[in-house]
Amino acid sequence: MVKVTVDGIDVDVPPGSNVLQACEAAGIEVPRFCYHERLSVAGNCRMCLVEIEKAPPKPFASCAYPVNEGMVVHTDTPMVKKARAGVMEFLLINHPLDCPICDQGGECDLQDQAVGYGRDGSRYTEAKRAVKDKDLGPLVKTVMTRCIQCTRCIRFSAEIAGTPELGATARGEGMEVGTYVQKALTSELSGNLIDICPVGALTSKPYQFVARPWELKKTDSVDVLDAVGTNIRVDARGPEVLRILPRLNEDVNEEWLADKSRFSVDGLKRRRLDSCWVRRDGSLVKAGWEEAFAAIEGKLKGVAGERIGAIAGDLCDAESMLALKDLMSRLGSANTDCRQDGAALDAARREFYIFNTSIAGIEEADAILLVGSNPRREAPLVNARILKRWRAGGLKLASIGTVADLTYPVEMIGDGPAVLAALADGSHPFAAVLKAAKHPMVIVGQGALRRDDGAGVLAAAWAVAGAVGALGAEWHGFNVLHTAAARVGGLDLGFVPGPGGKSVAGMLGGGVDVLWLLGADEIDTSRIGANTFVVYQGHHGDAGAARADVILPGAAYTEKNGTYVSTEGRVQRGQLAVYPPGEAREDWKILRAFSGWLVKPLPYDTIEALRARLETVNPVFARLDILPRFGCSDAAGPAGAGLTGGAFRPAVANYYQTDVISRASPTMAACTAAYAAPVAVAAE
Amino acid sequence: MTEHTEPASFAFDDESEARITKVMAKYPAGKQASAVLPLLDLAQRQMGRVTGSAWVPKVAMDEIARRLDMPPIRVYEVATFYLMFNMQPVGTYHLQVCTTTPCWLRGSDQVVEACRKATGIKGWKETSADGLFTMTEVECVGACVNAPILQVNDDFFEDMDAASTEALLAALRRGEYPKVGSVTGRQTSAPEGGPTTLTTLNFPAE
């Protein structure tokens, strides 16, 4: 450790730190624009100037100056104050005075720091520079005259997103940040540019002129539009969610948020189910709760338990899934399944279906094998973590599946399960690479499991992991990358067919007489038997609701308190930010109310009681926000054999529209039009 | 970028390829991006040689990015940073008038005026109607001692004034290429009219 004194405060910082970090360690605020902890140091805004004793008598850019033993730093001398005020005056020379019409107003670094460190006025009287705005696609709005050329966005797109498309062209007065040739940004993380831009040059296009930050009620929550479990903050005004921002969680999303999760927010107020509907004479008519419950009760009468089934969708909270499972067992049914896509996930042991290495653990890996997975489309923040690891150097990557640009180079070693056998017996050259690696990882995507031979692929991938030493006592390198936020939670609480129960495939095609869909829209509803009575409980009018005989309006993830388990098995809670619209209710309450209607009441009246039941069903639900990492204690793999061959197909056809919320979002529709080329998708 | 027609494609010709082989040999493997400046220069020279207009079209920058395995935007950044790379088509003769203080004090305004009169060009970065001339205002080209300077393509014409500028452009128009250097005939940057110091020294004949 290096001892540094900042404004009389002694701090010890690791060698290689810069002076700015030492100041932060001492609790001294240093203004900055270009410096960002997660990006390379540029040192071009000059705002972080400090004075250093026994160094040349000039202000130093603290972000780009390394610490030395015994260094004495001052941040409050007249020289520092004058230097920072001077830098601020220069920055403001070409910055427009348009704060009243700027979306960054109220959360603008330039505004705040101009007040804190600037002069009271400008001595500049000449004409200001104006820069043409750039069209960066449907998500990021540009007002380039406001740009102070800190180059954060350039570094972010190259270093974090891995899509080096932004640059600074020309020089001096003529320097402009942009793509040079007009093009939309191709990154799934482009929304983060809005967050890292310290001024109003890059702002949210869908959110433009919508609200001021001080009008918003902020609620900490968890994202459900992919399985990463990104920590988010939901900003709402009145009954309306206006925007979603990332929240810091070093182990999950760092401080980033994927575009679908950020910009699908306008889908939360479109195509909503805000009252019950009951099908009469072939068409759905609005109904009250009693009417809807009576219709279901009437249908359930006399139906044997094994003729009733339930399928849980991708966005469900664990509480509602457990309530539905309990309701089903009260009705005598073991037909429950949360794998609506038909993926051959094995619920026998937890390590068979979670991302055991953990997302943060990717940074320790030194060889990765992707099996039927495109993490860039399936979990952009997992992909960003792999890119981060790759940029650190020494990572070897191979992929089995479709060729795709993952933002880092990947060796394609095959397109189907045949390669897995060669990797397991060591005859494939990449097996040696994995074997030589200290921390090898195998990542199995849903594209590899949504197949007739999915169980065989899962077993073969586990065998590869075992053969290359990825299943150690200290290191668990077997990972399943999920695309649905509800999946791991569903498997954890056993929302799978019970003894003699039917799976999704068994329930479709007339396998049951009454089918309860809890937000399940990703099934092929045309395969539901013509005489099957369908109850759809959910929040959006999509495929499931269109087929339903009774619709029960549920709550979207921003409208309920719910527990979600991410792909890495991390248990997190989302919180209610706004109330569900109209007659809609939190889903577990609907199920509890219906059980009461049937006079078979579920044994919980409060969410706390339901959560206590969750913890008895599976103790992992008590490990809130904590993710202990385990090695592999039992090398025996999942049951499943037989590989039929055939190439893996991508699990996600169009990143921007994967669920009911993003399909209802006009912004995501615009992104689909701008970016997505249709891809052949994996079917069960 | 101003409006202009981009060529549909760009490929280095044999002459450029021969040079590229030599250039690339200077850089170790993995560091080939260092060759971006010479390759941009070669592209601009090839365009001048082949089309008569020495500039770097976007397709050429994309080709360079591909060859050097770097993102295209990194090539755009470098090419637009250096003013010696022309990002739009120029005339056969690229008139680069230095108007920095020493040249300006020595009459660069007259040189500019004479260029405008002879070519009919009104503003900077514009090309004459016949496609022969493009006028660009440049900062100090480093030959102040013989100011003012008019740089035509790669060559300096020094000690210019209105009359000599008109004569130079007229000669270029006729297809001649006058002698490069001082138009007053001074030897390199020696004093005008011969030596003014050390005149008493006599060197024995060798």
Annotate the secondary structure layout.
The complex is a heterodimer of chains A (684) and B (206).
Chain A (H helix, E strand, L loop, with lengths): L1 E5 L2 E5 L5 H7 L23 E4 L7 E2 L9 E4 L3 H16 L15 H9 L22 E3 L9 H8 L7 E3 L6 E3 L12 H6 L5 E3 L12 E6 L8 E7 L2 E7 L12 H5 L12 E5 L2 E5 L1 H12 L7 E5 L5 H13 L5 E2 L29 E5 L3 H4 L1 H13 L3 E5 L10 E2 L5 H7 L4 H8 L3 E6 H4 L4 H14 L10 E4 L5 H6 L11 H4 L6 E5 L14 E6 L4 H5 L2 E4 L8 E4 L5 E4 L12 H11 L9 H11 L42 H4 L2 H9 L10
Parallel strand pairs in A: 1-5, 15-16, 15-22, 17-18, 17-20, 18-19, 20-21, 22-23, 23-24
Antiparallel strand pairs in A: 1-2, 3-4, 3-5, 6-9, 7-8, 10-11, 11-12, 13-14, 13-24, 25-26
Helix pairs in contact in A: 8-18, 8-19, 11-14
Chain B lengths: L13 H11 L11 H16 L6 H11 L3 H10 L11 E6 L2 H5 L2 H12 L6 E2 L5 E6 L11 E3 L2 E4 L3 H12 L7 E2 L24
Parallel strand pairs in B: 1-3, 5-6
Antiparallel strand pairs in B: 1-4, 2-3, 4-5
Helix pairs in contact in B: 1-2, 2-3, 3-4, 6-7
